[in-house]
Write a structure and sequence with these properties.
This protein is globular. Strand 11 (286-290), helix 13 and strand 12 (305-309) form a beta-alpha-beta unit. The chain has helices spanning 6-17, 36-52, 64-68, 85-88, 92-109, 120-132, 153-159, 168-176, 188-191, 218-238, 254-263, 277-281, 293-301, 313-322, 330-335, 350-361, 364-374, 386-406, and strands at residues 28-33, 57-62, 72-76, 113-117, 137-140, 162-165, 181-183, 209-213, 243-247, 270-273, 286-290, 305-309, 342-344. It is of the alpha/beta class and 410 residues long. Helices cover 47% and strands 15% of the residues. The longest helix is centred in the middle third of the chain and has 21 residues, at 218-238. The protein folds into two domains: 6-186 and 382-406, 3-Layer(aba) Sandwich (Rossmann fold); 196-380, Rossmann fold. The protein has 18 helices and 13 strands.
C-alpha cells in the first residue's frame, strides 16, 4: 500500500489551521462537479474546507448539494452526468455551453486554485483551460486510470498541480507517471455509517426489504430502472411481505423514476426515498444496484447486493478493450475476486436479477458469507479523516497561490 504523503499532510494541516495573515488576500477556489456523485463528494469537501478556513471563497459549477454546503454555485451541471461515447452525444451541447460559462467565470473571478471532481471528459477539457490561465488544478476523484486507460495517466499528471487519489492503487499509477499525488484515504470512510438504530454494518436486518438503486445518471435510469422494478415484482410474488425502497439520487431524476414505477404498475409497493438513504439502506436484506460508487457505499454498510450494468454496444466494446480489471463492481475489484454477482448487458433481465436476489434472500448462509467478505473492504480504504486531510491540502495550494499574487512585486 502506498504511503499517505505524510510530509504533505502535516504541512497542509498546519497551514489550514493557521489564522488568515493580516492583509493577505482571501483565497478563491473554483469547484467543478459535473454529475450527481461529484456534486455529493464536492459538497463534503466544501464543508471540510470551510470548517478549516472560513475565509476561503468557494464558487463554481455543480448542484444542490454543493450549494447547501456553502458553495456559490454559478453554473448548474450536476444533471449533465453521462458515461460512454454514444451516451454522451445527447449532452454535448449543454456540456460545451457549461464549459463556456465556466471559462467566463475563470476570467472574471481568477481563482487561486481549481478542484475538479469526477466527470472525466468535461473536467479534462476544463483542466487544459485552467493550465493556460496559470491556475493550479487539483483533481479530486480523478479519472480512474488504474481501472482502464492507463495511457491517460500521463496527461492527467501533467495537467494537475495535485492529484488527490481515492484508492491506493490509483495513487501508485499517477505517481508512476510523474504526478504529484496524495492519498489520504477514501472519503466514504468518513461518510458511510449505519445509524445507531439500524444495528451494526454487516449484520442481517430484522425485517425483509429490498433496495433498488439504478444509478444517478439519466441513461442509467433509462436502462436499469424498469428491469430492477420488474425483478422486485417477481420477488414479491414469492415474498409478498417484502418492502421495496428506491433511493432518489437527485431531484431531477424523480419524475423519471415515478414514470418507471407507473409503467410496471408498482405505485402501491415502492417507496421512494429522498432523504436519509443510509438509514434505510442499512436495514435492507438485499440491493439491486448499478455499478458505481453506490456499490462501495453498500459494501461499507454490509448489504448483500447484485450489481448490474448496461450501456450501448459500442461503449461496452470500448470498455472491454481498455479495461485492466476483470470485474465491474467496486467490491469485487478491491477484493480481487467475485464476491458480488455481476450482470452485464443482455444478462440484465428481470428474471436474472430476481434469481440472483432470491439466492441471497432464501439462503442465510450465502448472504452471511457475502457480508463477511464485504467487511474486508473497510480496512483497504484508509483511516477516518480522509476528507479533512484532503481539504487541508486544497487550502494549502490555494493559500500559496494567493500569497504569491499579493506578495512583494505582485
Amino acid at each position: 500500500m502506498p504511503h499517505t504523503s505524510e510530509p504533505l499532510l502535516r504541512e497542509a494541516v498546519a497551514l489550514s489551521r493557521a489564522q488568515k495573515p493580516p492583509g493577505a488576500s482571501e483565497p478563491r477556489i473554483l469547484l467543478a462537479a459535473g454529475e450527481v456523485s461529484g456534486d455529493v463528494q464536492a459538497a463534503h469537501l466544501a464543508r471540510a474546507i470551510l470548517a478549516q478556513a472560513p475565509h476561503v471563497r468557494l464558487f463554481g459549477a455543480g448542484g444542490p448539494r454543493m450549494a447547501e454546503a456553502g458553495v456559490d454555485v454559478r453554473i448548474p451541471t450536476s444533471h449533465l452526468g453521462c458515461v460512454g461515447l454514444q451516451e454522451s452525444a445527447r449532452f454535448a451541447r449543454p456540456l460545451y455551453r457549461a464549459l463556456g460559462q465556466i471559462k467566463g467565470l475563470i476570467g472574471s473571478e481568477k481563482p487561486d486554485a481549481a478542484v475538479l471532481v469526477d466527470n472525466e471528459g468535461f473536467n479534462l477539457m476544463l483542466a487544459r483551460r485552467l493550465n493556460r490561465q496559470g491556475i493550479p488544478v487539483i483533481f479530486y476523484f480523478a479519472p480512474q486510470v488504474w481501472l482502464w486507460g492507463k495511457w491517460r495517466a500521463s496527461s492527467v499528471a501533467k495537467l494537475a498541480r495535485l492529484v488527490i487519489a481515492a484508492f491506493p492503487d490509483e495513487a501508485e499509477v499517477y505517481r508512476h507517471h510523474g504526478g504529484r499525488v496524495a492519498w489520504f484515504g477514501h472519503p466514504l470512510i468518513d461518510v458511510v455509517r449505519a445509524p445507531d438504530n439500524c444495528g451494526q454494518p454487516g449484520h442481517p436486518p430484522d425485517h425483509r426489504t429490498i433496495a433498488l438503486m439504478p444509478g444517478s445518471r439519466i441513461q442509467e435510469i433509462e436502462r436499469l430502472a424498469r428491469p430492477m422494478l420488474q425483478a422486485a415484482k417477481i420477488i414479491r410474488a414469492t415474498h409478498p411481505d417484502m418492502q421495496v425502497f428506491l433511493p432518489v439520487a437527485a431531484p431531477h431524476l424523480l419524475n423519471r423514476l415515478r414514470a418507471a414505477i407507473a409503467d410496471v404498475r408498482m405505485e402501491d409497493c415502492v417507496r421512494l426515498i429522498e432523504r436519509d438513504a443510509y438509514a434505510h439502506l442499512s436495514g435492507c436484506s438485499v440491493a439491486l444496484m448499478a455499478s458505481g460508487t453506490a456499490t462501495l457505499e453498500a459494501a461499507l454498510l454490509g448489504i448483500p447486493m447484485v450489481v448490474a450494468y448496461r450501456v450501448s454496444p459500442v461503449t461496452y466494446w470500448l470498455g472491454r478493450c481498455l479495461a485492466h480489471v476483470q470485474h465491474i463492481a467496486m467490491p469485487n475489484i478491491l477484493l480481487r475476486e467475485r464476491v458480488v454477482p455481476e450482470l452485464l448487458q443482455g444478462d440484465v433481465r428481470p428474471e436474472r436479477l430476481a434469481t440472483e436476489a432470491l439466492a441471497l434472500l432464501d439462503s442465510d448462509g450465502r448472504a452471511d458469507a457475502m457480508r463477511r467478505s464485504l467487511r474486508r473492504i473497510r480496512p483497504l480504504l484508509g483511516e477516518v479523516g480522509a476528507i479533512a486531510r484532503a481539504a487541508a491540502a486544497v487550502v494549502k495550494e490555494a493559500r500559496e497561490t494567493a500569497s504569491a499574487r499579493t506578495g512583494p512585486g505582485s
